[in-house]
Design brief:
Layout lengths: L6 E5 L4 H12 L4 E6 L2 H15 L4 E5 L5 H15 L4 E4 L9 H23 L8 E6 L13 H16 L3 H5 L2 E8 L5 H9 L5 H10 L5 H13 L7 E4 L4 E4 L7
Parallel strand pairs: 1-2, 1-4, 2-3, 4-5, 5-6, 6-7
Antiparallel strand pairs: 7-8
Length: about 260
């Protein structure tokens, strides 16, 4: 898919990876991008910066709690009403806080499901759309265990499994919607510090050590891969691990029983 002239929704867009996705889509000529988040002050400030660079009409900030179906539906509706279409959805919102594990499941996994199916509804061929692309943010610990924060990786494993499966769901395929996932390595964002504060106090020193030993992956590299997945027409079902120096693309697995 050529990004130029397309319309996108990015959740968790106030800062970090989400903010990087929004800027890249605008650089690539997107007609409009909606930034969804609950960090209103940061989100609005970054939106204003992007508006000055790319014009006010091409980017807007929408307060949206992705755990609430009504918030998400309203954001999708506002985006389509304003820009006239929807082509790209990046389900990027996430938290790392084992002490609030139910909230983490709601944001990291359930919201991805909601966002994916809303994307199919709003940009699917059966509803008058042109089809589109959904990119779900998982993590490299969505493919391997992380013993110090077991619930967080379980949510990311779920995102990987959901992405691979929903990409093959008949109604998704018939609506010409592709679904893929990225699994970034360690990224130096506020999420890492929140992870330490939210994990079991007995594990915090070990958490610091484990995180310090991992090389950092620049946000720009992650955004590069997301751009590739959006533009590559055969990316549906792909899961991509993005490290600081290497990217590994996993095609949908073929399993025989």
């Amino acid at each position: 898919m050529d990004i130029e002239g397309r319309v996108a929704i990015v959740t968790g867009a106030a800062r970090g990876i989400g903010r990087g996705i929004v800027e890249r889509l605008l650089e690539k000529g997107a007609k409009g991008v909606s930034m969804l988040d609950i960090i209103d002050e940061t989100g609005q400030e970054n939106c204003k910066v992007l508006q000055k660079t790319f014009s006010e009409e091409r980017v807007m900030y929408i307060h949206c709690d992705v755990t609430k179906q009504t918030d998400l539906e309203a954001a999708f509706e506002k985006t389509v009403n304003y820009y006239g279409r929807l082509d790209i959805v990046c389900n990027n919102a996430g938290i790392l806080n084992e002490s609030q594990w139910e909230k983490m499941i709601d944001i990291n996994y359930k919201a991805v499901i909601r966002g994916t199916y809303l994307a199919v509804e709003y940009m699917g061929k059966s509803k008058g759309g042109s089809g589109g692309v959904v990119i779900n943010t998982a993590s490299f610990v969505g493919l391997v265990p992380f013993n110090l924060c077991p619930i967080y990786p379980s949510t990311k494993h779920a995102v990987v499994g959901f992405t691979r499966s929903v990409a093959l769901e008949p109604k998704v395929v018939e609506n010409h919607v592709r679904v893929a996932a990225i699994c970034p390595g360690k990224v130096d964002t506020l999420l890492l510090n929140a992870g330490k504060a939210g994990c079991n106090p007995d594990y915090r020193d070990a958490y610091d050590t484990a995180v310090a030993e991992l090389p950092s992956t620049p946000i720009a590299r992650i955004v590069d891969v997301i751009t590739t997945l959006i533009e590559y027409p055969n990316s549906s079902g792909n899961v991509c691990v993005v490290g600081p120096n290497k990217t590994t693309f996993f095609d949908p697995p073929e399993v025989e029983f």
